[in-house]
Amino acid sequence: MDGGIFYSKIKGAYMKQKEIIDEITMKRAITRITYEIIERNKEMDKLVLVGIRTRGVYLAQRIQERLKQLEGLDIPLGELDTKPFRDDKQAENDTSEIDVDVTGKDIILVDDVLYTGRTIRAAIDGLVHLGRPARVQLAVLVDRGHRELPIRADYVGKNIPTAHDEEIIVQMTEHDGQDSILIASDN
Ligand SMILES: O=P(O)(O)OC[C@H]1O[C@H](OP(=O)(O)OP(=O)(O)O)[C@H](O)[C@@H]1O
Ligand SMILES: O=c1cc[nH]c(=O)[nH]1
């Protein structure tokens, strides 16, 4: 390591990586998102958290835990697989697990990174296949810009301006063994 910079393989190629958000800052960002959700949603009994696989699910679970700690609320949580609804891949098995009826509910979609917006478009498609929510909001840990569709997040942990050829890597303990946000580039 040199000044926090290290090299490792991403999708088969060596990339330069650097941590830009540490564990504590990430935790604070999730707590702030939770407070904003509480402030902006008066009918909390209508709320349903829907995490987008993969890391959006862990993020949604953490927001669910904070809502319990801060307000004593038990907000239902579903796990959404967007792959069957994407416009760039063949349909695959739908591994979504959403046991609650979404019709009439205030859904908060949760994902780790918002980039082109295509995953969120697919997520909305997946949701409306299940029912007719009253409202759909979006919470993301990182908004890195470069939208290709008219999609914006209601709750943003960190706005991180990036170049097209960079990559944001969110690591979560449940999946990656540690909490960290890295930026990667090939130069
Ligand atoms: O706004 P977009 O351009 O759609 O990019 C954002 C999506 O990309 C990543 O998912 P990825 O497809 O890498 O799957 P993963 O979460 O399972 O790693 C990330 O978790 C978001 O879901
Ligand atoms: O940089 C990016 C872009 C899409 N998805 C990610 O996880 N990171």
UniProtKB/TrEMBL annotation:
Residue interval(s) of motif PRPP-binding: 107-119
InterPro entries assigned to the protein according to its UniProt record, in alphabetical order: PRTase-like, PRTase_dom, PyrR, PyrR_bifunctional
Keywords for this protein: Glycosyltransferase, RNA-binding, Transcription, Transcription regulation, Transcription termination, Transferase
Coiled coil: none
Catalytic activities: UMP + diphosphate = 5-phospho-alpha-D-ribose 1-diphosphate + uracil
GO molecular function, one term: uracil phosphoribosyltransferase activity
Pfam families assigned: Pribosyltran
Group of enzyme by EC: transferase
GO biological process, one term: DNA-templated transcription termination
EC numbers for this chain: 2.4.2.9
Record has Glycosyltransferase as a keyword: yes
Domain Phosphoribosyltransferase: 18-171
Function of the molecule: Also displays a weak uracil phosphoribosyltransferase activity which is not physiologically significant.
SUBUNIT field: Homodimer and homohexamer; in equilibrium.
Similarity remark: Belongs to the purine/pyrimidine phosphoribosyltransferase family. PyrR subfamily.
Protein name: Bifunctional protein PyrR
Lineage: Bacteria, Bacillati, Bacillota, Bacilli, Lactobacillales
